[in-house]
Amino acid sequence: MTTTAPSHPDSAAESAPASSYASYVPHDLKYSAEFEDALIAAVLDSTEPPTTAANIRVTPNPELDSNVSLPSIPESDLPLPLSDPRRTHPSFLPGVSLTHPAGYYEGGPGLDPDLDTFPEDFFTRHSSLQTTAQLQRALQKEVGENLELLRERLGARRRAREKNEGLERELKSLRDQHHMELRIHHRMREEKAMKKEARESRRKGKAG
């Protein structure tokens, strides 16, 4: 797949049909614990090295994708499972493929360049870049930093989940213990009542 540097958003947007881009951001999508858990496993447990920036794109480019059949995915279907067969394009994350070049990890195309400030922000932060090699190094560095932030976030998510699961186990143990204590207490009350009834019956028998 051809690598392209981040371009000015207006140039790509002018030649792209409206359906080529997403009009939403990942934060707009419904939360899926299953998807995030799968992403955690893919990112934190993978032994594969990250994909290099030379192999993939970071912004959509309809001109390059004009001869490629890309799926149409409703926003309501996102996020897609990582095993979805429509995930056929590489990403920077090992074990995570995209449904569209430069698309979202959740699935679907990337953000409309009219709404995406990444290219402008990137070139503002790296205004001294003069060669393609410098651009690739700067891009790879930024990707690496973002991946590290993602690993930290997902690591915190995993630790929080494990802590919550531990608390749930403790609560279940306490509930089970309380239930057992109630059953024992109920049985003791029944036995006490039966013994009392037996004593009263014997007393009445003697009195009669």
Description:
The chain is 51% helix and 0% strand. The chain is an all-alpha fold. Helix 2 crosses helix 5. The N terminus is likely disordered. It has five helices and no strands. It has one domain. The relative contact order is 0.14.
Helical content class: 40-55%
Mean of pLDDT: 82
- Tell me the distance between the termini: 103 Å
Instruction: Supply Rg.
Output: 30 Å
Strand count, sense and barrel status of the largest sheet are: none
Q: Could you list the spans in which at least 5 consecutive residues all have pLDDT below 50?
A: 1-18
Number of helices: 5
Strand content: under 5%
- The helix/strand series, from N terminus to C terminus, equals HHHHH
Structural class: mainly alpha
Topology record:
Blueprint: H1 9-14, H2 33-45, H3 62-65, H4 118-125, H5 132-207
Helix pairs in contact: 2-5
Short description:
By secondary structure, the chain is an all-alpha fold. 51% of the residues lie in helices and 0% in strands. Residues 150-177 form a coiled coil.
Give keywords.
51% helix; 208 residues; mainly alpha; coiled coil
